[in-house]
Specification:
The protein folds into three domains: 6-36, no CATH class; 41-104, DNA polymerase, domain 1; 111-423, Aldolase class I (TIM Barrel, Alpha-Beta Barrel), CATH 3.20.20. The protein is 33% helix and 16% strand. The chain has helices spanning 2-8, 25-32, 48-57, 63-80, 93-102, 179-193, 229-239, 260-270, 283-289, 298-306, 331-340, 366-378, 409-420; strands at 18-19, 41-42, 103-104, 109-115, 121-127, 136-145, 148-152, 156-157, 175-176, 216-219, 252-256, 273-277, 317-323, 346-352. The protein has a ten-stranded mixed sheet, with helices on both faces. It is elongated. The protein starts with a helix and ends in a 5-residue tail after the last helix. Bound molecules: S-adenosyl-L-homocysteine and iron/sulfur cluster. S-adenosyl-L-homocysteine binds next to strand 11, strand 13 and helix 13.
């Protein structure tokens, strides 16, 4: 680990990406030492009750102590952020050894960590196979800004949906991520940024000047979170638990392509901010771009949005709108968008399309995007796009594992626009 921190502290002068060579045996070993052993069950991602039950079932904690022990572990896991039982100092040595024998609390293996000159970070995490199958790799991205740091998290490996402009949509669903895997993306990122108590932030890291290094999370990586509802719910309830990771629910945004039956539950049972991947204002076009629209057409989607629990002008829904040249980017489309959203407390995020090899779509011209944005601004929706910052390493979320080539302008803009959706406060 030390070696990584030392590399990260190298003064950043150019715009080249800083990339760690984790193929070097020594570095990989250091990270692998903490990587999860698939054979043992993880305690991360369990509710308090499940945690207590697991301790009793393993026969290492008597029933009458279970609640207290679960609380103790919860504190170590989610407040202190430890990933090794040996560091739980107020737990006896014998119990620590028993815990170690039965369970794991390790983080996933970090295959690669890249740091951009503007502080943006991207991790490639490897998770063990669950049952049959192979290990899976997913990407998690961090963007620091003035006053906030946003982490983009994945919910599935691949996706069952086939949105025609989305690269993930061309990949089959490999599997759902577990609550543990969703949470450890956040916990590993907090490790690497020194965002747990008594931890140092690596020298030279770019993080918000005050407050938490990761203040916001967006479920906008790979996958459709509402097709993995239970695990996403468990993970987000733990992430927002006030006695643990303590992220405000107003700073957690879940993005969905429009799984209408789960939208109300998202507000009721999870209570986080909602983003809708809208992208079109009529059913014919949306059927093509976001095929789940055939199942849940716009009328039903907008009705579900209007009924979203807790919706108000202070808690708006974000509507994401990808700008596709000559497809959905005319002023007529902008008018239709405003009409469609009339009366819904809404924010609009224009996302410049991020092209990928093999796609037939192109990103709208910059001028067209600006005109579209002006129309929307005039209708009372503030700053739907922003000027890009230098981003040199990243593929936008929702696009897995692109090479670590320099980021193109459209890629940077797409990523930036998506991240804005996560800025609940
Ligand atoms: N499956 C969820 C969340 C992940 S995608 C959803 O669809 O909402 C996060 C956002 O990125 C979505 O709005 C998605 O439509 C958008 N997106 C996907 N591919 C893109 C691309 N190539 N360029 C720009 N935005 C894209
Ligand atoms: Fe899946 Fe979202 Fe991509 Fe559609 S946009 S294919 S729902 S990840």
């Amino acid at each position: 680990m030390d070696r990584l921190v030392a590399t990260a502290s190298t003064p950043i002068t150019g715009i080249m990406a800083l990339s760690f060579d984790l193929t070097a045996d020594t570095t990989r070993d250091a990270l692998r030492a903490r990587a999860a052993t698939p054979a043992k069950a993880s305690l991360v991602g369990l509710t308090r009750a499940e945690l207590a039950a697991a301790l009793v079932a393993a026969g290492i904690v008597p029933e009458r102590q279970a609640k207290m022990r679960a609380q103790q572990l919860w504190h170590w896991l989610y407040v202190r952020g430890v990933s090794d039982f040996a560091h739980m100092f107020n737990i006896s040595k014998d119990l620590r050894a028993a815990l170690e024998q039965h369970f794991t609390i390790a983080r996933p293996e970090i295959v690669e960590e890249q740091i951009s000159s503007d502080g943006t970070r991207k991790w490639l995490f490897r998770f063990p196979p669950r049952g049959a199958g192979r290990p899976v790799e997913i990407e998690t991205v961090y963007i620091p800004e003035e006053g906030r740091g946003t982490l983009c998290i994945s919910s599935q490996v691949g996706c069952t949906l086939t949105c025609s402009f989305c690269h993930t949509g061309t990949q089959k669903l490999v599997r759902n991520l577990t609550a543990e895997e969703i949470l450890t993306q956040l916990m590993s990122a907090r490790d690497r940024l020194g965002d747990f108590p008594d931890r140092d932030t690596p020298d030279g890291a770019i993080v918000p000047a005050e407050g938490r290094k990761i203040s916001n999370i967006v479920m906008m990586g790979m996958g459709e979170p509402l097709y993995n509802f239970e695990e996403v719910k468990k993970a987000l309830l733990i992430a927002s638990d006030g006695d643990g990771l303590s992220l405000s629910k107003r700073r957690i945004t879940l993005s969905t392509s429009g799984v209408v039956p789960e939208i109300f539950r998202t507000g009721e049972e999870i209570g986080v901010m909602l983003a809708i991947s809208l992208h079109a204002t009529n059913d014919d076009l949306r059927d093509m771009l976001v095929p789940i629209n055939k199942k849940y057409p716009l009328k039903e989607l907008i009705a579900a949005c209007r009924a979203y629990p807790g919706l108000s002008n202070a808690r708006r829904i974000t509507f994401e709108y990808v700008m596709l040249k000559d497809v959905n980017d005319s002023i007529e489309d902008a008018k239709a968008l405003i009409k469609l959203l009339k009366g819904v407390p809404a924010k609009i995020n224009l996302i410049p399309f991020n092209p990928w090899p093999g796609t037939n779509y192109q990103c709208s011209d910059w001028e067209t995007i600006e005109k579209f944005a002006d129309y929307i601004n005039n209708a009372g929706y503030a700053s739907p796009i922003r000027t890009p910052r230098g981003r040199d390493i990243l593929a936008a979320c929702g696009q897995l594992k692109s090479e670590s080539e320099r980021m193109k302008k459209t890629e940077r803009l797409a990523l930036e626009a998506m991240m804005i959706a996560g800025h609940g406060e």
